[in-house]
Amino acid sequence: MSKKALAIILGIILLLSAGCGLKKQSGSANNAVSDMQKVSSGNQGVTKNEARDVSSGEQNGRKITQNYEIYVVVEDLKILSRDIQDKARTMGGYIQNEDINEYGCSITVRIPQQEAEKFVEYIDKTYEVKNKKSRTEDITQAYTDNDARLKNLKAQEAQILEILKKANRVEDILKVQEELYKLRGEIESLEAMKKMWDRQIEYVTILISANKKEIIKENKISIIKGSDFFKAISRGVVNSAIYLIVGVQRLIIFIAANIIWMIILGFAAWYIYRKYFKNKNVVSICKNRDPNDKE
């Protein structure tokens, strides 16, 4: 066999080997994408089924949130605020929010669920309660559905990470990463919801609204007896004399301070009277006199 023929045969073998390698690589990339699509499409059906399983298995305890709204009237708002803080601290709770002014206050307390009834009883016994409301909500179904969805998304995340390891082409890697980012966003949202519900279940929210109590003092009238009667008379005479002297003093001060204006006004009044009223009287007298009368 000539050298030229041998070279042609080797070239054909190399081309066939390269073609098989490319086909195998393309097939593995397509398999990675198809696996990702199967995981994504199969997740919805699994989520519903597993949500039913978790819901049916959650028979031992219910997920209940509870809130109270209590309205009281007190004589001292600062004492109320201090007592509520101390009581909440001793029961393992805390003050979430407080707004206090001269006439009223609003205090939001978070108390552990096992201590909530004792805290409400303390408020009933210690303060004058005008109104009280209690509200409970059963979130068991929503909680278990959320938990099942979270579990399935985490399983899907693990599968996508395995698929990401098998992907070779840049295009396939980007598609898998995009799906992974979306999935992790949903997982973070569901985890935040779960934490919020856990806090609401663990701690009862109690809103205490208070107004300052109006204290009306009673006027007690009693008969004055004995020497107190004469002392009261003497005090009355002395007080009357003092009021009279003070009144005269103020009158003198008023006259002294306004004497100039009083003189001016008096002169103006005398001038007006002399010019108008006196002349009017003279004219009327002249008109009424008999013309035959002579002085």
From TrEMBL:
Keywords: Coiled coil, Membrane, Transmembrane, Transmembrane helix. InterPro entries: DUF4349. Residues 38-59 are annotated as: Disordered. Residues 150-193 form a coiled coil. Residues 38-47 have a biased composition (Polar residues). Residues 62-273 form the DUF4349 domain. The chain crosses the membrane at residues 251-273. The keyword Membrane applies. The keyword Transmembrane helix applies. Pfam families: DUF4349. This is Uncharacterized protein DUF4349. It comes from Fonticella tunisiensis.
